[in-house]
Amino acid sequence: MSGDEFPQHPPEAWASLGTGFLEFARIRKPGDVLVRLFNPSRASHGWASSRTVLQLANDDMPFLVDSVTLALAERGIAVHVLGHPVVRITRDRGGKLSAIGEGSPESLMHLEIDRQSAAGMKDIEASIRQVLVDVRAMVADWPAMRDKMLEVAEQLGTRTSPLAGEDVQEAREFLRWAADNHFTFLGYREYEVAGQGKQEVLQAVAGSGMGLLRGEDRGQPRPLTSLAAHYMPRSGAVDALILTKTNARATVHRRGYMDYIGVLTFNKAGKPVREERFLGLFTSSAYNRRPWDIPVVRQRYRHVMEQSGLDADSHNGKALKHILETLPRDELFQSTEHELLQTSLGILGLQERVRSRIFMRRDRYGRFYSALVYIPRDRFNTEVRLRIEAMLKDALNADHVDSSVMLGESPLAQLHIMIRPKPSDGNSGTVPDIDMVAIEGQLAQIVRDWADDLRDELIARRGEEHALPLANTYGRALPAGYIENVSAQVAADDVEHLAALAGADDLRLSLYRSHQGAGGLRFKFYRQGDDIPLSDALPMMENMGLRVISEHPYRIDANGGVFFIQDFEVEYPRPIEVSEIDVDFEEAFAAIWRGQAENDAFNRLILTAGLSWRQVAMLRAYCKYLLQVGVTFSQAYMEQTLSRYPLLARLLVELFEARFDPSTGRESKAEIKAGMQKFQSQLERIAGEDAALAAIVRPVIDARAGKRAGQVEAARAALLGLMDRVSSLDEDRILRSFKGVIEATLRTSYYQGAVGGADTGYVSYKFDSAMVPDLPKPRPYREIFVYGPRVEGVHLRFGPVARGGLRWSDRREDFRTEVLGLVKAQMVKNTVIVPVGSKGGFFVKRPPAGGDRDAIQAEGIACYRMFINGLLDITDNIVDGGIVPPANVVRFDEDDPYLVVAADKGTATFSDIANGIAREHRFWLDDAFASGGSVGYDHKGMGITARGGWESVKRHFRAMGRDSQKQDFTCAGVGDMSGDVFGNGMLLSRHILLIAAFDHRHIFLDPTPDASTSFKERTRMFKLPRSSWEDYDATLISEGGGVYPRSAKSIPVSPQVRAALGIGVMTEAMSPAELMSAILKAP
Question: pTM of this prediction?
Answer without folding.
Answer: 0.67
